[in-house]
Amino acid sequence: MLGFLKKPVVVTAEINMNLVALTIMGLISRLWGLSYPRAVVFDEVYYGQFVSLYMKRIFFVDDSGPPLGHMLLALGGYLGGFDGNFLWNRIGAEYSMNVPVWSLRLLPALAGALCVPLVYQILVELKFSHSAALGAALLILLENSLITQSRFMLLESILIFFILLAVLSYLKFYNLQRHRSFSGSWWFWLLLTGVACSCAVGVKYMGLFTYLLLLAMAGLHFWHMIGDQSFSNVSLICHFLARGLALLITPVAMYLSFFYLHLTLLYRSGPHDQIMTSAFQASLEGGLARITQGQPLEVAYGSQITLRNVLGKPMQCWLHSHTNTYPIRYENGRGSSHQQQVTCYPFKDVNNWWIVKDPGMQQLVVSNPPRPVRHGHIVQLVHGITTRYLNTHDVAAPLSPHSQEVSCYIDYNISMPAQNLWRVEIVNRESDTDVWKTILSEVRFVHVNTSAVLKASGFTFIYLGASLPEWGYRQLEVVGEKLSKGYHQSMVWNVEEHRYGKSQEQKEREVELHSPTQMDISKNLSFMAKFTELQWKILTLKNEDTEHKYSSSALDWITMDTNIAYWFHPTSGAQIHLLGNVVTWASANVAALVYMCLSLWYLVRRRRKIYDIPEDAWQLWVSAGGISGGGWAVNYLPFFLMEKTLFLYHYLPALTFQILLIPIVLQHLSDHLCRSLLLKSMLSALVVAWFSSVYFVYHTFSPVTYGEPALSVPQLRDLRWKDTWNILLRKQ
Q1: Which segments cross the bilayer (predicted)?
Q2: DSSP string of 188-246, one letter each residue
């Protein structure tokens, strides 16, 4: 019974020592001296702010992309015990002792280090030799720009890691396709492909390019499967559903989970609240929630309300009026109605309060029980402090002469009657009997007499506002816009603050309007509502792109005609630059050119039924080029269509794919074009000499890659291999 104890338990394992050695070297190159310099380096000043906000659970919006990358950086801060207390105000600022610099930079460094063995594995899965795979990994290991970018609190190394992981996972899945379909390992690699693609997109939207490339490859491979008669119809359906689950549903679910975690962590009100809707703001702890919590939900006749414009850009603003009137004549000679001004004011003020009045009754208080206002009801809006009625008429607006002037009506006993009836239209209603709700309802006010819509004017597509002159206190113009001119968010308003009016007398009502709302109301939006709004803000929010000293064009990247000074020590002159390995970049360009020329040559000759290489070699050549060349193209060419400030580091994902072409082309030359032993020996000698030059350049520029040792002014001048490089020289 216990006979099995007579023999020892033996466990055998195959260990790829190349992989182990590459991983160790990658870790050393990226983790060595990681805390140096103990100062803010380039975009750490940008990402560090978000890390601090995560530590304090304060909500923010970053228009640069989804939140996964920020959360990973914040995870490093959390593991290091960072409390978020540091002022990220300038590059080069010394970190205080409470900032765990090593921990904050750890995850990007680990991601950069793991890219080295990932590249090795990708070449192996593409069926290239281990020597070619080793060469590709060493090129990534010795690429100065990738080292620099991965040693600081930046996102590119994390993005590249997930991109390479997605490519490797798909290749492993594809290679298991023929003999081990639906096995555990087959499912693992297929699902990991979807997860890695989702993570890449979740770090930066640039990851979408590689995701689409892999989807195209998966679609092409499945198309070939359809033509394979060895697959039954049932089997094809199962394969299709499996790919749909792993490559479409799983990434979408993962992407949503990133935002769910982001919104769960950031539950406190913060400086970015103002660009969100009132409902979103009210869902955060503090800020607007402290004001609106407990307010009446349904707007009724007699309600006292503030109306916030839904657009929220260039700044949040509320419908506002004051005792000043429009000038009788504007600077351009046009006349006005000389009525009381109505504007959109970007600050909370007692003059933002309006009373919802029933046109058929005189009372300005809420009845008991309250009579709610519904979609389609006609109302008058009475300015709380001046008790004048919101009005519009066929008079040109001050800044928008093709729109109607909006005012609070003053009776001058002239032939200009009041036109102060407005129809409430709830834009996001579920039915035509919906009640107008505080915060939740988005409404338009349509003028009964002229069909004009109340609009905060001056908003263009990029959300630049037009403000009134000095007589209007530089506030935003409000106009009546004809419905025929289309729909825009600047025509939509929501009730932000709300109370049921109790005072009929004007003096008592003014005291009531000056007092804060005593009842505080909680509005809990669903996750999908918050996600939809936040996602839309990320995609449409545009900060003004300004010319940066180190910005560049996409054409500058291929030949590395630009660099970025990341850090400079004011006394020693030590500095860190984003500079690539010149030999590697040039070789990658040559490899891409050789690949395109050879591919065109092969295609023309194959058209003539001349086959220079075996079919399996041709398929290998095409598939390898599809991944490496295709990866370079999809991660590079879109930048020519982007209207944003570009930097050299945007090219690094494309560069990584282009570097893969170097060993692919070299092995192809060795296997199929160098057919004599002499030619193979000569090619090998050239490769050794070339690789020595790669290492020489890496070693030469390592002082400005790692920031130490500090170089003298003559040594720094010697590193300026191109006139376009900006190497910093301290004054002697």
Answers
A1: 9-32, 68-88, 100-122, 154-174, 186-203, 208-226, 246-267, 582-604, 616-634, 646-666, 678-698
A2: HHHHHHHHHHHHHHHH-TTHHHHHHHHHHHHHHHHHHHHT-TTS-HHHHHHHHHHHHII
Burial class (CB in 10 A: 0-12, 13-18, 19+), 89: exposed
Most confident of 162-171, 309-318, 410-419, 610-619: 162-171
- Kindly report the backbone phi and psi dihedral angles of residue 488, in degrees, each rounded to the nearest multiple of 5, phi listed first: -150, 150
In this structure, the strands spanning 493-500 and 476-482 are unpaired
Residue 597: closest CA among 570, 629, 636, 565:
629
Q: What is the rounded distance in angstroms from the CA atom of residue 174 to the CA atom of residue 197?
A: 16
Contact (Cβ atoms closer than 8 angstroms) between residue 135 and residue 666: yes
Of 314, 317, 361, the residue nearest 342 (C-alpha): 317
Please choose, from the candidates 192, 203, 242, 205, the residue with its C-alpha nearest in 3D space to the C-alpha of residue 222.
242
Q: How confident is the model at residue 544 (pLDDT cuts 50, 70, 90)?
A: low
Cβ contact 571:696 at 8 Å:
no
- Choice among 223-232, 398-407, 497-506, 715-724 with the minimum mean pLDDT: 497-506
Beta strands in 409-458 (DSSP E): 422-426, 443-447, 452-456
Which one-letter DSSP state was computed for residue 332? T
Count of beta carbons in the 10 Å neighbourhood of residue 300: 21
In 32-99, where does DSSP find H-type helix? 44-55, 68-79
Of 34, 26, 30, which Cα lies nearest the Cα of 136? 26
* Cis peptide, bond prior to residue 37, ω within 30 of zero: yes
Enter the tokens of residue 625. 């080029």
* Residue 593, φ and ψ in degrees, nearest 5: -65, -45
**At residue 44, does pLDDT exceed 70?**
yes
Asked if 163 and 207 touch (Cβ cutoff 8 Å), the reply is yes
The distance in angstroms from the start CA to the end CA of the chain is 86
Phi-psi region of 413 (alpha: psi -120 to 50; beta: other; left: phi over 0): left
Structure tokens at 348: 């909370």
Q: Within 13 Å and on the Cβ side, how many CA atoms surround 675?
A: 4
Task: Indicate whether 462 pLDDT > 50.
Answer: no
| pLDDT at residue 399 is higher than 60 | yes
> Using CA atoms, how far apart are residues 252 and 469, in angstroms rounded to an integer?
48
CA distances from 428 to 50, 432, 443 (A): 33, 10, 8
Tokens, residue 107: 């995850």
Pairing of strands 404-408, 340-345: antiparallel
- pLDDT for position 518: 39
Which 3 state secondary structure label does DSSP give 487? coil
The lowest-confidence range among 132-136, 140-144, 201-205, 520-524 is 520-524
CATH 2.80.10.50 location in the chain:
294-521
Angle made by CA atoms 255, 316, 387, in degrees to the nearest 5: 140
Mean pLDDT score, 547-568: 90
- 502 vs 470: CA distance, rounded Å: 36
What number is the average pLDDT over the span 704-717?
Answer: 91
Encoded tokens for 369: 């029980």
Closest residue by Cα to residue 403 from 478, 329, 325: 478
The average pLDDT across 383-404 equals: 91
What does residue 391 show for φ and ψ, rounded to 5 degrees?
Answer: -145, 150
Helix and strand numbers (H, E) in the chain are 21, 14
Contact 658/591 with Cβ under 8 angstroms? yes
Q: Which CATH class is domain 294-521?
A: mainly beta
Q: What angle (nearest 5°) sits at the alpha carbon of residue 42, between those of residues 40 and 47?
A: 75
Long-range contacts of 671-680 (CB under 8 A, 24+ apart): 671/617, 672/612, 672/613, 672/617
Q: Rounded to whole angstroms, what are the CA distances from 214 to 165, 190, 514?
A: 12, 11, 60
